[in-house]
Amino acid sequence: MYINSIGYYLPELIVQNSYFRKVNGLTAEWIFSRTGITERRKADPEENTNTMAIEAVKQALPENPYSIQDVDLIIGSTYSPYDTVITVAHAVQHKFNISGVKVVSVSAACSSFINSVEIVEGYFASNKAESALIIASAHNTAYGNDSDERSGHLWGDGAAAMFISKKRLSENDLKILDVTTEGLGNIGNPHESVFLHPSNGGIKMPNGRDVFINANKFMAKGLEDILMKNSMSINDVNYVIPHQANARIIENVRIQLKIGKEKMIVNIDKLGNTGSASTPIALAQIKKKIKHKDVVGITVFGGGYSSGAMLIEK
């Protein structure tokens, strides 16, 4: 599989840490010391999961080597939908008037994007599709509660879109060497650690410690396992893109992997936790830095729980 193009969208509104002193009593310094976040983006009232996804697709289109009308599979990944009936994937299909296409939506918390890539792999292997569009969109602030001192300051909004083909179509394509996911709903305390009850309090993280412990473990393990499977080591990796949940988790994963800070891609300081969109946004941000034969490792952990990893080569 090959990544043909990738784009991302971030709302214009920037919310600084200082804002939360007024609503939940937390200082900017306290938030930064525990999360690594200094600011995050927030969708305006006219924006939602679907509109951000559409804007991300628009950003990916100029560099894509084929028409969006040639896409035969669309997968939307989000846990913060604008509508659970007309999904984000169907909204994209409608906006760009794509006919004769399979449309699927995925929700596996912050690992949803990697789950989507693995689903594309399955469609390609069964010869049911050849050109896919994945959209990851997070409208966390629609469900968040700023006054929640435990997690109200964590969330940011944003979206990413990625076109993937079964065959290489351009010298600019990025090759997906491997992708894997794992459901982890059988470990820890997934039902009470982090949840989103749309009609009962929105998105909350009452047991962040359980999330923290398991994210540290499985994000490092996921990347190590996929590298071993492909007869590679961490020394073969030029960049690591971890899910942007917490700067302390990212640093702990870096230490476990024994890599330098220059290899670890971090954007949580400016964007907050953008859910399943965090890793494709980060990939889009560094795409021009990736040189021939560079290897990028992506590793994620989602509430619920779930994990996933992917290896990419230029």
What do these coordinates show?
With 314 residues, this protein is of the alpha+beta class. The protein is built from eleven helices and 13 strands. The chain has helices at residues 19-23, 28-35, 49-60, 88-96, 112-125, 140-143, 190-193, 208-229, 247-257, 268-271, 278-286; strands at 2-9, 13-16, 39-42, 73-77, 102-106, 131-139, 157-165, 174-183, 195-197, 202-204, 239-242, 295-302, 306-313. α3 packs across α4 and α8 (208-229) packs parallel to α9 (247-257). The radius of gyration is 18 Å and the shape is globular. The mean pLDDT is 96.
How would you describe this structure in keywords?
314 residues; alpha+beta; Peroxisomal Thiolase, Chain A, domain 1; 9-stranded mixed beta sheet; two-stranded antiparallel sheet; 11 helices; 25% strand
* SSE-based structural type: alpha+beta
Order of helices and strands: EEHHEHEHEHEHEEHEEHEHHHEE
Shape: globular
Q: What are the low-pLDDT stretches, counting only 5+ consecutive residues below 50?
A: none
Name the beta content range.
25-35%
Please state how the strands of the largest beta sheet are arranged side by side: 5-4-6-7-1-8-13-12-11
